[in-house]
Structure formats: structure tokens, C-alpha cells
Amino acid sequence: MYSTISIATLAVAVALVCAHALLYKPKSAALKGDPNTRLGLVRVLVYLGLAAGFLSLIATGFVPTVAGMKLHGWILMAHVGSGPLFIVCLLVSLLIWGETCCLTPSDFSGTYPVEPAPRCYVGQKITFWCGMFLGTVVLISAILPLVWATVAEIQHCLLAIHRYSALALIVAGIVHAYLLLAGRPGVRTVFRAS
Fold first, then answer.
1. Using CB atoms within 10 A of its CB, is residue 109 exposed (0-12), middle (13-18) or buried (19+)?
2. Are 187 and 122 a contacting pair, CB within 8 Å?
3. Given this model, what pLDDT does residue 129 score?
4. Hey, CA dihedral for 98, 104, 107, 111, is it positive or negative?
5. Residue pLDDT, tens place only, 66-98
6. How do residues 142-186 score in pLDDT, each as one tens digit?
7. Do residues 124 and 88 touch, judged by C-beta distance below 8 A?
8. Where are the beta strands (DSSP E) in 2-128?
9. Cβ atoms within 10 A of the Cβ of 81, count?
10. In three state form, how does the secondary structure of 149-192 look?
11. Which of 125, 94, 128 is nearest to 108 (CA)?
């Protein structure tokens, strides 16, 4: 059941991202070297650490689970070993971009200042905070079974929370990465308040 839900959810997320890209044909300021979006070395390292941790967690936890395999042995050790890199980079990204990604009333007014251009738009901010929240849920649901190791019902519940919050985190990561790479045009029209 989880495999079917996971594959369907990821297919819908990728289809929506592709549909948005086709409809709005975004032109990325990040890829053109816009000075407002250039990243320093620390920020690049945080992005690379997040990507490496995220992809290794997907490869060692999500993919085997969707394939119907049990996590044990070296796959489990690789999954557990990838967690700290991801969590540390998630926390550092919260420190670096937390203030920049705070939602403000102007994010939902439908108008954006021309000068200076905002560093993050509302879609990027929403997916950033979804990622932070879901990353916390994934972390807590991974650590709590170690504390309550003797209660099987709680372990099964926490495992289900871990799986589904990880799926939601993957979707949020896909959308956030797309919005970062796609740039500004089209994003604000999707989230415009009426």
C-alpha cells in the first residue's frame, strides 16, 4: 500500500512541476548569475550537503521500502549514517535562510516590489518551511523509537509517521528545488491572493 501511494504521489508531484514549467516557461535568475541569487561558498556547501544527505537517505531508505525490501544490515547502517549529514545541513540552512524565508503580508498581496527584488518568493518560502517542519517530524519519528524500544505499538505508529512524513518531505524537496531553479517568473501568479 505504501509503495503504491509513494509512486502515485511522486508521479503527481513531478507532473505538476513539469506542467508548471511548461505553462510558465520560467527563466531562472539563479542560473544566469543574477547578483541577488549568487551563493557564497558556505551556502553552496550547505546545498551540496543537503542534496547529498537527502539523496543518500532516499537511496538507502525510501527506494528499498518502496521496492518492498526490509531495512536491515548495511542498508540500514547507511541510512542511519546519512541522517546526521542531512539534519546538520538542515539546521544550518535554517540559520542561514530562516530570516530571509519569513512570510510577510506582502507575500500574499499579489504585488511585488520592483526594487529591491525579494530574495525569496512566497512559493520558495512555503516549501522551505514545509521542509523544515517535515524534516523535524522525520527526525523525531526516527529518534523516539530508540527511547520507547519496548512498546511495539508505538514503534509501528512512529515508523508509519516516519515513512509518510519522509514521502511528504521528498515532495516538498522536489517542489522547493524546482522553485529555486525555475526562478521568479510565474511563481507569484500561482500563489497570488484573490
1. exposed
2. yes
3. 93
4. negative
5. 888 888 888 889 998 988 999 999 999 898 888
6. 888 887 666 788 888 998 999 999 999 999 999 988 888 776 544
7. no
8. none
9. 13
10. CCCHHHHHHHHHHHHHHHHHHHHHHHHHHHHHHHCCCCHHHHCC
11. 125
- Can you give the pLDDT at residue 43? 79
Using CA atoms, how far apart are residues 49 and 39, in angstroms rounded to an integer? 14
Q: What cell numbers appear for 109 in the block?
A: 498581496
Contact 58, 66 (CB under 8 A): no
Q: Where are the beta strands (DSSP E) in the chain?
A: none
Hey, what's the torsion of the CAs at 157, 162, 163, 165, to 10 degrees?
120
Closest C-alpha to 90, from 128, 50, 40, 141:
50
